[in-house]
Every structure is written in C-alpha cells, then in structure tokens.
Amino acid sequence: MTLYTNSDETFVLSATSSLVQKSFSLLKQTAQKRPVLIAISGESASGKTTFLNTLKRILKTSVFIDADNYFIDLSRQIKQYGSFADLLKSGFESDAPSSFMLDTLYDDLAKLRSNRLAYIPKYQMNGGYSYPNAICVSPAPFIFVCGICTLYKPVVDLFDFKIYLQADKELQYKRYLDRAHERGQTQEQAISQFKYVSDMAKKYIIPTRKEADIIVKGRLPNHTLKRLFIDTVRQIG
Q: What is the pLDDT of residues 24-61, one digit of tens each?
C-alpha cells in the first residue's frame, strides 16, 4: 500500500498485506446492504476525537458510536472511594477489558451488522453512571466505533476494518496539561494522570495494535486525513 507522506513525515505507518483484499470484501458486503463495521482505537488523547470529527464531516451517511459509553457502572465505587481519582489509586484499572461491557457491545454491534436497531448504553463521566438502552442507533452503510476497547476480544472479531491511531507523545502530553486547566486540575495532577494512562496503555492498549489493519499517525492534518479516506474507506462505499 502507498504510504501518505509530506516532505518530512509519514502518516500511514503500516498496513496489512490483506488490505486490498479486504477492500474488495467490503465492496461486496456493502453491495449486499450489510453494514460495514470500522473500529478506531488508540491511546487516550491520541487524537481519536479529532480524527472522528473529521470523518463526520467527510462521511455524511455513516453512524458513529462512542465506545466509552460501554464503561461499566462505577457510581457505587466512586461514592465508596470519594472520587474517580481515588478509585484509581485503589488499584482499579480503567483501561482493562474488565472495565467495559464488552459482551453488551458485541451484542449491539451484532444487531447493527444484521441491519437491526440497537439501543446502546449512555455513560455519564460525572459520577460514573451507566444508563442502559439510552441511545437508539440505526444501521447505516458504514458504522464507526471509536474507543480504546474496540480492539479487545471478543468485540474485535466483529469489525471489517480496524484502524489504530499511533499517539504523538508530545501532543498527547500537551493535551493532558490543557485538559488539566479545563478541569480545574493542577499541573502535578495532570502529570500523575498522564503517567497512569501511559502505564495502562503499555499494558492494555498498545498490544492491540497487532489487531489493526492500518496504523495511522495521531497527528494528521485535515487535508491529509480527507485524502487518506477518499482513497481508502470512502471509495469502498
């Protein structure tokens, strides 16, 4: 596969040898009116939200699902420990597969893949509440599911195409400091949180790169992202 570059930077870091073959498979599936499921994964603050927002502007007839809505309900634990930060200090691992309702995500995606409606949960970060069946999602030709858990088993096996965003560490660190200011955290708290998510990523997220069909650099200019998807995902629809 051709790698997208400018004079000093490569944007597509790797792609599996079966990528072209997968494209033909997706063409056939789309022609048969079976939704194509596409996973977007990567570390926290690797650029997934920016990536997804750009896709939304390009692909108007697609559905976008935030996999963070499949966090388990943590309201009881947060009340017990006093805060989410204190819950993490107790040893809770927020990025572990056990922190997500993967069976529910699998069932919901299977429904959408079969052209059926799915009523997915809604997770409230403030307080850690999970509300079941809160969001109605209709099938669409392309269904993008974005979140760190999308390449975890067994969910990963449902996806037709899997994208991993390679974190730009400099930008990732800057985002954490910026978020600290927005959330009223101190710089010390942000640095501590960044160390935590980096440790979690090494343990749970980075190993899932092997599941991806394509690995894309997290810092992508919008014009490059548009060109990349016009030449890959969009053309197979």
A: 566 566 646 788 899 999 988 777 877 777 777 777 77
In a domain? residue 7? no
Boundaries of domain holding 153: 12-236
pLDDT tens digit string along 90-148? Answer: 999 999 999 999 999 999 999 999 999 999 999 998 899 999 999 999 999 889 999 99
User: If you write DSSP's letter for every residue of the chain in order, what string do you get?
Assistant: -PPPB-SS-BSEEEE-TTHHHHHHHHHHHHHTTPPEEEEEEESTTSSHHHHHHHHHHH-TTEEEEEGGGGBPP-HHHHHHHSSHHHHHHTT--TTSGGGB-HHHHHHHHHHHHTT--EEEEEEETTTTEEEEEEEEE---SEEEEESTTTTSTTGGGG-SEEEEEEP-HHHHHHHHHHHHHHTT--HHHHHHHHHHHHHHIIIIIGGGGGG-SEEEES---HHHHHHHHHHTTGGG-
Residue 4 falls inside a structural domain: no
